[in-house]
Amino acid sequence: MDDADPRADLAAAGADASAGPMPTARPDPSAPHVPSLDDSPCARHASSRHHDPDGPPLERKVRHDIWVLGLAVGVFGASFGVLATTAGLTVAQACAMSVLVFTGASQFAVVGVIGSGGSLGSALGSALLLAARNAAYGVALAPTVARRSLGRRLLAAQLVIDESTAMAMAQRGRRAREQALWTTGAAVFVCWNVATALGAVAGDAIGDPEALGLDAAFPAGFVALAVPHVRTRAGRVAALGGVLIALVLIPLAPAGVPIVAAALAVLPAVLFAAPPSALRAPRPPTDPGHDAAAEPGGGS
Amino acid sequence: MSWWAIVGLGAAAYALKATGLVIVGARAVEGRMLRLAALLPAALLPALVVVNTFAGDRRLVLDARAVGLAVAVVATWRRAPFVVVVTAAAVATALARAAG
What we know:
The complex is a heterodimer.
Chain A: H1 6-14, H2 43-46, H3 60-86, H4 91-100, H5 104-115, H6 120-145, H7 150-158, H8 162-169, H9 174-201, H10 203-206, H11 217-226, H12 233-249, H13 257-262, H14 266-273, H15 277-280, H16 288-294
Helix pairs in contact in A: 1-3, 1-11, 3-4, 3-5, 3-9, 4-9, 5-6, 6-8, 6-9, 8-9, 12-14
Chain B: H1 3-27, H2 32-38, H3 40-54, H4 64-77, H5 82-99
Helix pairs in contact in B: 4-5
């Protein structure tokens, strides 16, 4: 797995990695270095297309993978809808929470604590602890959207969640990262909210989400999402540290604390295991052939 | 659960996201903080997996969810498509629950 093409692994996280060597014969929009009229209406975005520093655009295959991810997230969204109404929320409240809070682990924590008879205070406390990691994700994603207007960055902020961060930070180059952030954020937002509504309305018909094993879908999806991030030594150290911290703290600390504390695992990863080059991207290009194919004008 | 709690939680969750992306992130353009932040998914995704699989009520538990996780890890290792990973884990967990 170590010497694999980063994109093949990403694809494994999103969809069929064995789609074969058949190249999609679409014309590369960044290939011609002549600005086209099509670009002018959104010149601010298009202007970056003709420079290399931003890297290639998001591959179409990754876009496809992202929507598959969105559909899978819909499975957890439906189980959230069911659990929320079971815990006593109205359908409208369940839907409002998915739109406004829009961070799955926190939402599950709230309805989990409320559903098991816990206090509102501990429900909200756990949810906020879990949501704190989105602030750190935001720091990681900030350079990706730094040149956008304030309004656009404020809009992007709502989309800063595990899935969009994981997909964006797995890409190489600013442009692909930004496209992955918006696409994943949009796909998950749409699927998560539609599924919440369906689950909340049809809760009785769906039955017990746990009997269907739906609670296992969330960690399973995150296993696949983590793959591109554990390709470097630093990533593996961080992952191992995060797992150990979480395991130790589960019996000792209230819900939410183990996750927040697991973020500390990035410290040993940076101190002991990270050559600077490993941190810019999951892996620098090693295959000159595929790199040439990714460069604008490089052969297509 | 009251509407105030939902709206308040939504506002707080959004404030956390925006603080990172718009306020702190804009100042930490390069350097060590960014290197740390870039490793967060590597640390947090596996931690979320562990908590969602092995956490009980303030204790570690080994139940049907562990079966689902094992299936997910094997399926991911075998480079199964995402949908297959998620579906196989859910089915395995459901079967383990039905059996146990």
